[in-house]
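We emphasize that the prediction below concerns an isolated chain of 202 residues; any contacts that depend on oligomerization or on bound cofactors are therefore not represented. The input was used exactly as deposited, without trimming of termini.
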Amino acid sequence: MTTRPEVTSIEVQARVSKSLDDLAAEFETLLGKDAPALRAIRYLAASFPPARVDAATDTGGVEDDWGPAMSAEEAAELEQANLQLQVEQRREQLNVSFSRVQAADVLGISPQTVSEWVAQHRLVGLKDGREWRFPAWQFTPDNSEPVLPDLGRLVEAFPGGVVSLSRWMSRPNDNFGGRTPAQEMVRDRDHVFAVVETLAAA
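Result of the prediction step, given as a token string:
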């Protein structure tokens, strides 16, 4: 059966809109309600006219189709928006991170030892120009161990970079009874890694 082009277009819009909504839900679970990336995703989802999306419910068995290709201008705009979101998220994490000297003071070690811990994957670091910055969520000065365990394994297993990991680790999470993943790492690290594996498999 030949699919009418206009019907296919409506169906594609409906599918894309739903996919964007689903993606926004995934981002909210992973990064929290105020993640900057959600603004771009929800903006795109809202760009599909509701009346046309609703019309897709009556198409009945249209063929799968990706529809017309994105224009070069649209692709460039999305790429720029994505880069800006990444910059905002990185800046957000740098603002709540320690310098090498500050980290050394918290840990009671020398700045040189801090650098050695980074090389040994005992600390998670972000580069800010030529300087290292250390997200605060990994420090546990009230406990017998001054930093969370298995940080190298965590970085390797998490489906994202250090910025995304830092945002996830420092936000309350329903998987852990409202505790942050960093707090749960102290209580039950295996539980945290089980959730991370689920995220990686999604």
